[in-house]
TrEMBL record:
Signal peptide: none annotated. This is Chaperone protein HtpG. InterPro entries: HATPase_C_sf (IPR036890), Heat_shock_protein_90_CS (IPR019805), HSP90_C (IPR037196), Hsp90_fam (IPR001404), Hsp90_N (IPR020575), Ribosomal_Su5_D2-typ_SF (IPR020568). It comes from Peloplasma aerotolerans. Belongs to the heat shock protein 90 family. Molecular chaperone. Has ATPase activity. ATP binds at E32, N36, D76, N89, S96, G97, Q115, F116, G117, V118, G119, F120, T165, R334. Homodimer. HAMAP family: HSP90.
């Protein structure tokens, strides 16, 4: 008895789109079905290697058109479906490709349909009814799934011996008004050219019985329509960029062309081909823990594994692609140790290759590199920080920052090359945005000296720099931390003198602020600003902010040093107030400290105290 079941809501939406599609490139349904058939054969073959209950076969995909019945049959001897799989795989959309397609299409961009792996449901673009007859090696009986692409489908048991899947498409009637021709999908010529166009590189034979006329007699002869050479096995000159892009989008579920293709053939002790892609944008789950890095692994064109993690280091985890090596035997588990060594070697080659391609891009195609860098900079920086800096040498030359002097990104190497010789450090400043850094009081002295400052706006930046420490022996130095080294000896002497003269007032301010600050000093780095807050040499204020957001880290605090500009009118005012009524300095100290916190983007510790002091000051000034 056939059971009727309802499609899940998302499937219904997708089906509705397919059946009502005004999209012109409906022919892609064939590519989708053939690709599913090929994946199903891959799966069967792979499982048969380790599970003796799964028989192997001569793997083939068959197309059988029938013009009289208006049907097209796509058959494979792949893994087939169990009943549960029919419900799960054809009754719901679990696939990321289809999901992201649905999201995009909901934004009304109908024309992108062909760029997606829209999968099985695309059959409904050309069919009134789709029947799937199938048998899995894991079930004793066969099943028939059928649907008209509306809200429901039926499933029933059938007698079927051979493992695999047969998909019968009942083609729609032609629609002359809209110039839609579905009859053509029963024509030998159309099917042949569609296979050539979309599925030529499928690794299994796509066969069709072709009518051959000899003399008066016509006979049916089996013909294989595809070349079966995987795209990565073809010579580079013969691959059109559109074909490569199409292959990427389909194989790796992206709807945009890749930013960069790296196609490499290595021969020698270890022979392999690698086809690597850098996506234009990180995958939608890239920053989640669900993201799985890895490359597909093939041996002699036969699929072995989907995401081999060993082939790609974490800091290049955005790279997608595949490796095909004749040196790997199919039975990976039996020879794991041997493979481990071979895979490690391939991984190490690939890592160098990716790095050199990126360095090349940085040198010769800055625009493309910046597009790449803006998409993946956090991952590269994290790669430097990770494992106590184990990989810092490999990655440091790929890092770039904007500076106070230019909107262009520059590398550490660029910085060193253009800094004045007498400058002994690579300066950086940290903040939420470029603008907030540029207006930091500590930037005054940098501006005056004409020094270039790297602008750190990502959380990871300072942590990365702690690990790097220096570049080509030039140390990194924060303009917001520790003593400024830009002050010459005479200025230092001068400052010491002033601090001596103002010893009492500085002491009084420090006393008023209690444990809030470690010290109160006069500053030589400030020009226009009255105060700033700097941290000691250890933890910086920015790092404190980040650590505070993490669980169980709340008591970590940077040493705060309040610096006051002795040449600012405000300091003169403070001196006057202190002379007249020393007690009044407490309120002023609190306001100054809170102002410095605000400038640094730190939270006001005691908003009521801050506000009360301001109010008091306003009232007093109205009296005088
Ligand atoms: N010919 C087939 N034989 C066995 N299983 C199949 C076959 N066709 C489809 N399937 C199963 O049905 C699932 C859904 O297929 P569908 O084409 O909708 O998505 P997909 O190809 O997995 O992903 P996407 O097309 O979104 O990249 C597949 O993942 C696969 O498990």
């Amino acid at each position: 008895m056939a059971k009727t079941k309802q499609f899940k809501t998302e499937s219904q939406k997708l089906l509705h789109l397919m059946t009502h599609s005004i999209y012109t490139q409906k022919e892609i349904f064939l590519r989708e079905l053939i690709s599913n058939a090929s994946d199903a054969i891959d799966k069967r073959h792979y499982l048969s290697l380790t599970d003796s209950s799964i028989p192997t076969d001569t793997y083939e995909i068959w197309l059988t058109p029938n013009a009289k019945d208006r049907t097209l049959v796509v058959a494979d001897n792949g893994i087939g479906f169990t009943e549960k799989e029919l419900i799960e795989n054809l009754g719901t959309i679990a696939q990321s490709g289809s999901k992201s397609f649905l999201e995009k299409i909901e934004q009304k961009d109908v024309d992108i349909i062909g760029q997606f792996g829209v999968g099985f449901y695309s059959a409904f673009m050309v069919s009134d009814k789709v029947i799937v007859e199938t048998k899995s090696p894991y079930s004793n009986t066969g099943y028939r799934w059928s649907s008209k692409g509306e809200s429901s489908y039926t499933i029933e048991e059938i007698e079927r011996e051979e493992i695999g899947t047969t998909i019968i498409l009942q083609l729609r009637d032609d629609d002359e008004e809209n110039e839609e021709d579905f009859t053509k999908f029963t024509s030998e010529y159309t099917l042949k050219s569609l296979v050539k166009k979309y599925s030529d590189y499928v690794r299994y034979p796509i066969n069709m019985m072709i009518e051959k006329k000899e003399k008066e007699k016509s006979t049916q002869v089996k013909e294989t329509l595809n070349q079966m050479t995987p795209i990565w096995k073809r010579s580079k000159q013969d691959i059109k960029p559109e074909d490569m892009n199409q292959f990427y989008k389909h194989q790796f579920n992206d709807f945009e062309d890749p930013l960069k293709v790296i196609h490499t053939n290595v021969e020698g002790m270890l022979t392999y081909t690698a086809l690597l892609f850098i996506p234009k944008k990180p995958a939608f789950d890239f920053y989640s823990e669900h993201y799985e890095k890895g490359l597909q692994l093939y041996t002699k064109g036969v699929f072995i594994q989907d995401k081999n993690k060993e082939l790609i280091p974490d800091y290049f985890k955005f790279v997608k692609g595949l490796v095909d090596s004749a040196d790997l035997s199919l039975n990976i588990s039996r020879e794991m140790l041997q493979h481990d060594r071979q895979l490690k070697k391939i991984a190490s080659h690939l890592e160098k290759k990716i790095k050199s391609e990126l360095e090349n891009m940085m040198l010769h195609d800055r625009d493309q590199y910046i597009e790449f860098y803006e998409a993946y900079k956090t991952t590269l920086k994290y790669g430097i920080y990770d494992q106590y800096g184990l990989n810092k040498e490999k990655l440091q030359d790929l890092i770039m920052f904007q500076t106070n002097k230019s909107d262009d990104y520059i590398s550490f190497k660029d910085y060193i090359e253009r800094k004045p010789e007498e400058q002994k450090a690579i300066y950086y400043a940290t903040g939420k945005t470029k603008q907030s850094i540029l207006s930091l009081p500590q930037m005054d002295i940098m501006k005056e000296n004409g020094y270039e400052v790297l602008l750190f706006t990502e959380d990871i930046d300072e942590f990365m720099i702690q690990v790097l420490q220096n570049y080509q022996d030039v140390p990194f130095k924060s303009v917001q931390q520790g003593e400024s080294d830009l002050i010459d000896d005479t200025k230092k002497e001068d400052l010491k003198e002033k601090e001596k003269e103002n010893k009492d007032i500085l002491k009084a301010i420090k006393k008023a602020l209690k444990e809030k600050v470690k010290d109160v000093k006069l500053s030589a780095r400030l020009k226009e600003s009255a105060v700033c807050l700097v941290s000691g040499e250890g933890l910086s204020l920015e790092m404190e902010k980040i650590l505070k957001q993490m669980p169980n880290q709340t008591d970590l605090k940077a040493d705060r040093i309040l610096e006051i500009n002795p040449d600012h009118d405000l300091f003169k005012a403070l001196q006057k107030i202190y002379e007249v009524d020393a007690k009044k300095i407490d309120g002023y100290a609190s306001i100054l400290y809170h102002q410095a916190l605000l400038i640094e983007g730190l939270p006001i510790e005691d908003p009521t105290e801050f506000s009360n002091n301001l109010v008091k000051l306003m009232i007093e000034s109205s009296k005088s």
